[in-house]
Structures are given as structure tokens and as C-alpha cells.
């Protein structure tokens, strides 16, 4: 009986190892693929231009605010209490507007990123799926992921780049 259980254990180990070797796992350098795509480069350029424009608008607003603040601070001793209070309220309003403008810019940027990157992500995922099916990969892991424990299998990066028509 004891020999039978030892034999059964050995058979299970051999079967387990055989099943593990049957799985085809590949790695993919997703960052490399994305950085090689002209669509991604164009989206990055467009998003940077959008961000720069928004930052310029916000800077203009804050420059006006700082100029008024300096003027109001300088003139405060010569103005009445009511005028100083009105000016203080105006400064708070300008500060709130600048903050809202900044929050709106961040929200707009996030929406633009989502719209710009969605077709790129779909194109890459379609290519990954096609390459994985063509090469019978059961798993394709991103080499940049912290979850990657072992990188010894085939690298799917060149095949995905070829599928996308990149270098």
C-alpha cells in the first residue's frame, strides 16, 4: 500500500511537470512597443500641446492675480476699510477661479488622454491577441509589470511590433 501511494505521488509529479511545460508563456515589452508607435508619439505631442496651452491660460490668470495683489497690498493703507474688504473678496474670487480653471484643465486632459489612447490600446491588444494565437501562447506577460516573476520564455515583442508594422 505504501509503495502504491509513493508510485501515485511520483506519477502526479511527472504529470504536473508535463502540464506546466505544455503551457507557452511569452513576455512582451509593452513600453517599447508603445514608444515605437507613431500614433502614440502623435498623441503624446498633441496632449503636450494641449497641456501647455492650458498651463499658459492658468499662468496668465495667476499673473493678473499676483499683479492685482501687489497693487492692492501697496494701496491698502490709503484705501478705506470697505474698499480693502471688497478688494480682498475680489482676490478670493480670482483665486477660486484660478483653482477651478486648474481642476477643469486636469479633467479635460484626462478625457483627452482617454480618447487619444483608446484606439492605440485597442490596436496593440488586437496585435497581441493575434500574435498569441498564432504562436499558441497561453500567457503573455508585460516585462515592465511588477507581477513578473520569471522571464525565460519567448519574447513576443518583435512579433507584436511586426504585426503593427513597426521596425
UniProtKB/TrEMBL annotation:
Record protein name field: Periplasmic chaperone
Biased composition (Basic and acidic residues): 76-92
SUPFAM superfamilies the record matches: OmpH-like
Record's signal peptide: 1-22
UniProt family annotation: Belongs to the Skp family.
SMART domains: OmpH (SM00935)
Single GO molecular function: unfolded protein binding
Species for this entry: Chryseobacterium indoltheticum
Biased composition (Polar residues): 93-103
Region annotation Disordered: where it falls in the sequence: 76-107
Lineage of the species this protein comes from: Bacteria, Pseudomonadati, Bacteroidota, Flavobacteriia, Flavobacteriales
GO cellular component, one term: cytosol
Entry annotated with the keyword Cytoplasm: no
Biological processes annotated in GO: protein stabilization
Record-linked Pfam families: OmpH
InterPro entries: Chaperone_Skp, Skp_dom_sf
Keyword tags: Signal
Amino acid at each position: 500500500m505504501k509503495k502504491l501511494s509513493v508510485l501515485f505521488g511520483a506519477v502526479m509529479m511527472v504529470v504536473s511537470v508535463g502540464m506546466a511545460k505544455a503551457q507557452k508563456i511569452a513576455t512582451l515589452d509593452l513600453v517599447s512597443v508603445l514608444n515605437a508607435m507613431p500614433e502614440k508619439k502623435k498623441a503624446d505631442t498633441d496632449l503636450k500641446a494641449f497641456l501647455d496651452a492650458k498651463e499658459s491660460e492658468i499662468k496668465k490668470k495667476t499673473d493678473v492675480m499676483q499683479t492685482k495683489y501687489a497693487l492692492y497690498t501697496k494701496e491698502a493703507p490709503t484705501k478705506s476699510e470697505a474698499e480693502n474688504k471688497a478688494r480682498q473678496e475680489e482676490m478670493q474670487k480670482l483665486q477660486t477661479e484660478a483653482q477651478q480653471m486648474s481642476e477643469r484643465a486636469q479633467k479635460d486632459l484626462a478625457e483627452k488622454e482617454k480618447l487619444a489612447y483608446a484606439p492605440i490600446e485597442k490596436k496593440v491588444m488586437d496585435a497581441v491577441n493575434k500574435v498569441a494565437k498564432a504562436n499558441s501562447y497561453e500567457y503573455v506577460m508585460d516585462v515592465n509589470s511588477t507581477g513578473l516573476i520569471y522571464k525565460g520564455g519567448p519574447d513576443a515583442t518583435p512579433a507584436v511590433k511586426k504585426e503593427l508594422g513597426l521596425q
